[in-house]
Amino acid sequence: GASFSLLEAKMGRSRSCLSTTLVFVVFELCLVRCDITDGNAEHLKREHSLMKPYQGVGSSPSSQWDFSGSTLVTSSYVRLTPDERSKQGSIWNTVPCYLKDWEMHVQFKVHGSGKKNLHGDGIAIWYTKDRLHPGPVFGNKDQFLGLAIFLDTFRNDLHGMDRSFPYISAMINNGSVSYDHGKDGRSSELGGCSAEIRNRQHDTYLAIRYSKGRLTVMVDVDDKNEWKECIDIGGVRLPTGYFFGASAATGDLSDNHDIISMKLYQLMVEHTPEEENLDWTKIEPSVSLLKSPKDNVDDPTGNFRGTPLTGWKVFLLLLCALLGIVVCAVVGAVVFQKRQERNKRFY
């Protein structure tokens, strides 16, 4: 009886351990996926949002969005570039954003007649100090101040075959770093993921969240109506008072780069009195990494910090839990057998 009790106790502890692990896994996953807002209309900031039928877009003094280059505004989409070579276009919010915590949802569409690998170059979503400055980085200026999310559809670096394109990446710049097109921005990339965003027959979305020093980028491009983690980085510092925008460029290869909507949501987050008293407009864009972004040349995953649990991590945790149960069961069985043998010797 005692042996069975011992085995049951060990198995009970194993079950308890597995339950704790599962609860932890679910909790971690929820932190990421449940944290992305479902588009709460109460917190939508219309002065920073671009939506059909795009009223208030133009160069008039009352407009909240202005555009440049090849950008074409229709009633159902904003086309940053047509499917033609050597085009650049952008659209920018004219109202600086003073929210400390925010989330931007972008509905976009990249499509064209080019066959696989014969299209380019991609879209960039910006939160920067300057706006309407055309340049070589997806239609915008280089050495910018602020944040950029690149949706890069064309591989320039033929040595970087360890990742598939289209590729989504993030970069934070204090004005001193140049984007290296030849290496697909690898030297300054903070993290990224591959995503099939081109010529999809359904809506494609990107969510960018900045809250309490954490930058999270999620995608919804598989017509599943759910966000999938792409980038999650801590130690990020971004000021208030910058502008949101989107730009795109084509080179020798081309695509239609369309923005359907950009919706900004205010996140209701409490800050410490010290944080509240800071002049957030004076913050310099930066990120505290455990290593230099340049090291990312040899680390294409861009995993600088503990990211939320991805599928393989969950699998490893569950595998470890299962192995723990097996080990406990074997130990229990051995102990039980030894106890039985000892009892036989006594009789």
From TrEMBL:
Q: Where are the transmembrane segments?
A: 314-336
Task: Name the UniProt key words of this record, in alphabetical order.
Answer: Disulfide bond, Glycoprotein, Golgi apparatus, Lectin, Membrane, Metal-binding, Signal, Transmembrane, Transmembrane helix
> Which InterPro entries does this entry report, sorted A to Z?
ConA-like_dom_sf, Intracellular_Lectin-GPT, Lectin_leg, VIP36_lectin
Q: Which residues form the L-type lectin-like domain?
A: 42-267
Q: List each coiled-coil range.
A: none
One GO term in the molecular function aspect is: D-mannose binding
Say where the protein is mainly found. membrane
How would you describe this protein's topology in the membrane?
Single-pass type I membrane protein; Single-pass membrane protein
* Pfam families hit by this protein: Lectin_leg-like (PF03388)
- Among its keywords, does the record have Translocase? no
Top-rank taxon? Eukaryota
Subcellular location, record wording: Endomembrane system; Golgi apparatus membrane
Query: What is the protein named?
Result: Vesicular integral-membrane protein VIP36-like
Q: What is the lineage of its organism?
A: Eukaryota, Metazoa, Chordata, Craniata, Vertebrata
